[in-house]
Each structure stands twice: as structure tokens, then as C-alpha cells.
């Protein structure tokens, strides 16, 4: 067994109504001036109001930035960081899915250390810890509340840049299942499959270690056994609790190794065609699992059991897992191919080049070349 290390820097608090603990966390951090970073969709359905009421009830100074968009850009980070500094804030609450959390992490960097977020692209470029960040997920999907990465779109390059390091990790993760129980079915489906992919890719990649694999297995058990029930009935409290915990456990898993070709290839899809991250991952998932089947071992059978609830048995072959993943997408209403989400073949060569820049390719179970990536994009284009 090779050497490995693991870290969980967050104080994670799980439970129905855990959101009410926000003032306690801010008090512990010594902050009385907080910025809320979220989006207009969450404002429209009343989730932002819940945080506003809690913060105002605690008599804390308060500013908010609610113009975060899916696949957030460097411009959004610059705007939000300027507002954060102007308001004299000393802590951040990130409310939402991966986009508000990515923006919050990036704002923490730019507000404290200056420049633009592109100056910190890569691993280990952030010189020190950012201000206290409290991450409050409203989807069971990204796991960003426990990860050390922020992904921001550089519009000038049509490229998703990544900033990685423990310095940008949230200080607190507030896991309140009540917040995911009003998600639209389409959001619950795409985010849920994204979380499942986090668990699966971290479980089978070449950097997998016992800690990450253990977290990934528990995540697959929770998500695999509940994702259909949750999409069908988001107000099912048991399913919501399982999905929330499963998403966080999957985030912990890949924060302690990496992912694989699915995530490497989904980022260019989102950057060029503005496809939601979870949808891009889900569409690519069956095709890339077929590609990786050449390197499959008993872990394919284990995943099959987690997502189907069936014994793999002596007749199991890797294609059975690939078929099960395709069926899962179909059951959840995920688009069947890249063409269905607006991707066009003319961008495939550049998308392949950009995908190869991801460190996730290096740990994919099957060695992958740029020609392989092009072929995979073409294969995933149509039904």
C-alpha cells in the first residue's frame, strides 16, 4: 500500500435546522460583519430570507451579493470582492450550490491578497488562509463545502481555471437537509448524479487510498439507495438527509485524492456551452465508464451493487455497470447526449486540449490521450 495523507479541516454541523447555528459560528470566529454570497434563484424561493432573518436577528453587520450565476466568471469574483472590501466584512457565508461556494472561496482570496483570481491558478498559490468562510449547501451535489478547490470561468479563454489549496477551505460546513427539500426535480437529479460521480471517480482512480475509498463507498451507499426517491419526492426527510450526507462524504473523498476523465471533460463543456456542471458530468458518465472498463476491477462490481441494490454475482461484467448508469440517467430525466444540451462538434478539438490540462486526467483509471478525449466527446455527442 502506498503512502497517503488525509485532512478534514472543516467543523461540520449536520441536522434539520442547523442553519440557526450561523450566529454561533460567526461569534466563534470573532466576526460581526458578514457578507452573504448567493444567487437570485435562492432569493426568489425564500432561502436567502432565512439567512437574512437569522443574521439580522443576531444584530450583525451584513452585506450581500446575490448575482452569482452558474459557471461563475472572473468578473463576478472581482465585483463581489470589491463589495466585500468596501463593506469592511470579515467573514463570508456561501449559500447555494457549487457556484456561490466557488465565488466565496475566490472572493476570500482576492479580497485578502489582491490581484485577480487568475493570479492564483493552480495548486499552492494562495499565500495564507482566507477570512472565515461558512459554507451552507442548498443542493446535494458539489461537496464544495468540504473541498479545497474553487473553479471559476475565465471568459477571455473560454476556460475554467482552478485554484486549489487548504487555505481556501471553508471553516464551517452547515449541513441542513431542510435547505435541499425545495429543489426542483431537475436540479436534484443533476446535482445528485454529480455527487455520485465524485464518489465513483475518487473510488476508482489511480490515486485512491483507503480513507478516500471508505468515504466514497459510504457516499455511494447513501446516494445510490436514495437518489431516485429524492428526485421523486424532495420533501422526503430520510432521503434528503441521506443525499445531504452522501454529497458531503463524496466531497471529502475527492478532496483527499482527485477525480478522473469525467470531470476533466465536463469543465470544457460548461465553459464553451454554459451547460450546468452536474448535467455535463452526468451526460458524459456512461461513455467514460465504458472507456475505463478496460481497467476495471472488483470496484466496478461494488459500484454496481451500490447504485442498483442488486448483487453483482459471478456473471457480472463491467458493461452491466455502464448500462445501469445509463438507465439511472434515463430514470432521472438527464439528457442522453451532448447534442441534447447544445454541444457542437466544431469545438471538440479545443475542448479536448483544455480537458488534458486537468490534473484529473493523470489519475484516470485508463491512460488517456488527447485523441482519446476527442473520440470520447464524439461518442457522447449522439444517442
Automatic annotation (TrEMBL):
Domain of life: Bacteria
Keywords associated with the record: NAD, Oxidoreductase
Cross-referenced PROSITE patterns: ADH_IRON_2 (PS00060)
The keyword Oxidoreductase is assigned to this record: yes
Gene3D superfamilies assigned to the protein according to its UniProt record, in alphabetical order: 3.40.50.1970, Dehydroquinate synthase-like - alpha domain
InterPro entries: ADH_Fe/GldA (IPR001670), ADH_Fe_C (IPR056798), ADH_Fe_CS (IPR018211), Alcohol_dehydrogenase_Fe (IPR039697)
Keyword NAD: yes
Family annotation (CDD domains): Fe-ADH
GO MF annotations, alphabetized: alcohol dehydrogenase (NAD+) activity; metal ion binding
Pfam families named among the record's database cross-references: ADH_Fe_C (PF25137), Fe-ADH (PF00465)
Domain Alcohol dehydrogenase iron-type/glycerol dehydrogenase GldA: residue ranges: 9-177
Domain Fe-containing alcohol dehydrogenase-like C-terminal positions: 189-381
Family as reported in the entry's similarity comment: Belongs to the iron-containing alcohol dehydrogenase family.
Protein name: Iron-containing alcohol dehydrogenase
Organism: Evtepia gabavorous
High-level lineage: Bacteria, Bacillati, Bacillota, Clostridia, Eubacteriales
